Amino acid sequence: MNLAISIDDIFGAARRLEGHAHRTPVLRSRTVDELTGATVFFKAENVQRMGAFKFRGAFNALAQFDPTQRERGVIAFSSGNHAQAIALSARLLGMPSVIVMPQDAPAAKVAATRGYQAGDARSEIVLYDRYTQDREAIGRELAARRGMTLIPPFDHPHVMAGQGTAALELIEQTAEGGPLDVLLVCVGGGGLISGCAVAATALNPGVEVWGVEPQAGNDTQQSLARGEIVRIPTPRTIADGAQTEASGRLTFPVIQALVRGIVTVDDAQLVQTMRLMAERMKIVVEPTGALAAAALLHRADGLPELRGRRVGVLISGGNVDIGRYAQLLSA
To answer: Would you please indicate which residues are annotated as catalytic (active-site) residues?
Structure first.
């Protein structure tokens, strides 16, 4: 099957990211191992630059712009993490950025995006209503009118390849004890899981890659069951980074080919997981970032038996408004 990216694309992304992206740590927790009966390795992308894995894909995409594209700049649409990633990458590469963000995006993510754009009068945020307006249409119209390059949050080969470097690193960092048996990955539009599935299965053909979606937004799970992309209304979930309506036309074929299945967790399980990770692992994880860990800890329906196995878990981000975080954990 001719997929959008290959392992060579991910190796190329890793070379571009060297010296720019953090090589994030792999964390262990005796408590989690005891609760699950597995040997668990958490890839901590919550401490990546701008607080999420999204920096990998954004920088890899923008680093491949030609001089004209760099001069005119980049447009992106995002609920927050891709927005910050594009804004920071554009700043590092000396180009303007225009970011289309929902009006109800977390305040911390909007503020951080504005901060990365500070000092460049050509850069701005354009707000929209995620329940009544089409962010893709807004982005396309602005890109055409201003001559800027649109980089979507997940359905782009350079973005997918960049995200795959997270799994590439995890496999390298855990190789000494043997290969991973299972890899659990958060799923929104599919950029992270498609890149990670390509990297993981190329380097370790025996690994089982599983995706995790919010229960209220299981479009990819439905799509796999139907054998075609299913579009749903914008899901209402605290996992704001996974409020996607459909998988991408590039990401979905990769998921079909390489991912064993998709499971779901609910918002209450996300909060419980965030609390455990704060209490026992001393890390701040946003709701979307906790999807894969929640599936592990709550034995999501559909997952294979994990006891006695080596399990990799992607923590995808830590960008959460502190007031909202405190409110969720104390509820």
So the answer is: 54, 79, 213, 217, 219, 316
Domains and CATH numbers, the chain: 7-53+156-330 (3.40.50.1100), 55-150 (3.40.50.1100)
User: In terms of Cα–Cα distance, which of 147, 148, 116 is closest to 50?
Assistant: 116
Nearest to 93 by CA among 122, 115, 78, 73: 73
pLDDT of the chain along its 331 residues, tens only? Answer: 799 999 999 999 999 999 999 999 999 999 999 999 999 999 999 999 999 999 999 999 999 999 999 999 999 998 789 999 999 999 999 999 999 998 988 788 888 999 999 989 999 999 999 888 988 899 999 999 999 999 999 999 999 999 999 999 999 999 999 999 999 999 999 999 999 999 999 999 999 999 999 999 999 999 999 999 999 998 999 998 898 999 999 999 999 999 999 999 999 999 999 999 999 999 999 999 999 999 999 999 999 999 999 999 999 999 998 999 999 999 8
Query: Residue 62: which residues within 8 A CB-CB, separation 6 or more?
Result: 74, 86, 89, 90, 93, 95, 151
The residue to which tokens 């927050």 are assigned: 80
Residues facing residue 44 across a β-bridge: 315
Question: Are the C-beta atoms of 119 and 108 separated by less than 8 Å?
Answer: no
pTM above 0.90? yes
How far, in Å, CA of 245 to CA of 227, rounded?
16
Residue with tokens 């539009």: 189
Question: Please, is 20 exposed, middle or buried when counting C-beta atoms within 10 Å of its C-beta (0-12, 13-18, 19+)?
Answer: middle
